[in-house]
């Protein structure tokens, strides 16, 4: 009886203990291999495991069902969840620009040098505006900037897949030198450099620095007086007065011993001419009286010569008869 009771007790324990051990093993296996999901995400499966909820970051394998005999026990097990994470690394863009030299004289030049990384394109700008640096530029390069008259900040902005970067460089322009001034030297009538001169342009100075035209004189042929004029024939008043004389009628004595007008006559007065234009006393021989007498057309200009030649001819007698 006792043996029968112990046997029945053993079978009863075996009947309930064995399924419990199996169930405990299954639960322990599931606990070891399970994956915990953030509570903010929906569960991977619904309680019956008949539907699968897909999360963007997870992949959920299908559930499996296991039946154990004896007694008949059904256990549903979900495999562990596999999580796939994709990480994208983005490099920020950078750009650097420098000017050489950074200080230049007025109207001078400078060179801009720039480099960039992780960029797709770059744009240039300047303040104040400069047409030489106001457009799209290469990602790396050098550029000459000429004829700068103002201090200018040169900026460059480069854009890449992960943002934008900006840098700038300033070129300082010195004040312009004071303009060269000129004045007129009235002794030499030449333009000279003079810090307080009236002219800032040499050409303007030269155009105004002219010796005054000399005073010229002309003869008024109505009054026979000299007067000042810019186009006069004489540069000296004395010379003008010497030549500005009323024309004088001149006379000469012709061969008939008469005074006549002549431009080159030796007499400026008619009376003077007449006083000097007297025919010399001439003599002629009267062959009737054999006497010399005065005449304007006589053959002799000397009385003695006339008398020497005015002789009656000698009479010759022929004594042979």
SSE diagram, text form:
Elements: H1 2-33, E1 58-59, E2 64-68, E3 73-77, E4 82-83, E5 94-100, E6 103-104, E7 108-117, E8 121-127, E9 136-137, E10 141-148, E11 152-160, E12 163-173, E13 182-185, E14 190-193, H2 202-208, E15 217-220, E16 225-228, H3 237-243, E17 251-253, E18 259-261, H4 270-276, E19 283-286, E20 291-294, H5 303-309
Parallel strand pairs: 6-12
Antiparallel strand pairs: 1-4, 2-3, 5-7, 7-10, 8-9, 8-11, 11-12, 13-14, 15-16, 17-18, 19-20
Structural description of this entry:
The protein has 321 residues and is α+β, with helices and mostly antiparallel strands. Among the domains are: 94-173, Immunoglobulin-like; 178-212; 215-246, no CATH class; 248-278, no CATH class; 279-311. 19% of the residues lie in helices and 31% in strands. It contains 5 helices and 20 strands. The protein has a 5-stranded mixed beta sheet with strand order 6-12-11-8-9, with no helix packed on it. It has a 3-stranded antiparallel beta sheet with strand order 5-7-10, with no helix packed on it. It has a two-stranded antiparallel ribbon with strand order 1-4. It is rod-shaped. The relative contact order is 0.06.
From the N-terminal CA to the C-terminal CA, the straight-line distance is: 268 Å
CATH class of one domain: Mainly Beta
Strand line-up across the major sheet: 6-12-11-8-9
CATH superfamily membership of one domain: Immunoglobulins
Largest sheet: 5 strands, mixed
Could you report the average pLDDT, rounded to the nearest whole number? 82
Strand runs, count: 20
Query: Can you write the helix and strand succession as a string?
Result: HEEEEEEEEEEEEEEHEEHEEHEEH
**Secondary-structure-derived class:** alpha+beta
Per the CATH scheme, the topology name of one domain is Immunoglobulin-like
Fraction of residues in H or I helices: 10-25%
Strand % is 25-35%
The radius of gyration computed from the alpha-carbon positions, rounded to a whole number of angstroms, is 73 Å
Low-pLDDT parts are 34-60
Task: Figure out the total of helices.
Answer: 5
The shape is rod-shaped
Tell me the CATH architecture of one domain: Sandwich
């Amino acid at each position: 009886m006792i043996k029968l009771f112990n046997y029945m007790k053993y079978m009863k324990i075996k009947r309930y203990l064995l399924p419990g051990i199996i169930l405990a093993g299954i639960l322990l296996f599931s606990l070891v291999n399970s994956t915990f999901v953030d509570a903010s995400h929906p569960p991977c499966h619904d309680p019956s495991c008949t539907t699968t909820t897909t999360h963007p970051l997870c992949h959920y394998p299908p559930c499996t069902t296991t039946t154990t005999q004896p007694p008949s026990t059904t256990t549903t097990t979900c495999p562990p969840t596999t999580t796939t994470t994709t990480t994208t690394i983005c490099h920020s863009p950078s750009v650097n620009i420098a000017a050489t030299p950074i200080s230049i004289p007025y109207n001078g030049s400078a060179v801009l040098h720039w480099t960039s990384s992780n960029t797709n394109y770059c744009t240039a700008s300047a303040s104040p505006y400069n047409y030489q640096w106001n457009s799209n530029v290469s990602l790396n390069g050098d550029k000459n900037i000429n004829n700068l008259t103002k201090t200018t900040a040169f900026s460059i902005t480069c854009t890449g897949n992960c943002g934008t970067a900006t840098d700038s460089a300033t070129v300082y322009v010195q004040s312009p030198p004071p303009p060269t001034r000129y004045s007129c030297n009235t002794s030499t009538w030449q333009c000279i450099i003079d810090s307080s001169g009236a002219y800032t342009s040499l050409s303007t100075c030269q155009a105004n620095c002219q010796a005054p035209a000399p005073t010229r004189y002309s003869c008024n042929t109505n009054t026979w007086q000299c007067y000042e004029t810019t186009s006069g024939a004489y540069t000296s008043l004395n010379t003008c007065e010497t030549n500005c004389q009323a024309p004088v009628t001149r006379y000469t004595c012709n061969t008939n011993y008469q005074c006549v007008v002549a431009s080159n006559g030796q007499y400026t007065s008619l009376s003077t001419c007449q006083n000097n234009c007297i025919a010399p006393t001439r003599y002629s021989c009267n062959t009737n009286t054999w006497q010399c007498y005065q005449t304007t057309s006589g053959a002799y200009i000397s009385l003695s010569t006339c008398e020497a030649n005015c002789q009656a001819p000698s009479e010759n007698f022929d004594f042979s008869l």
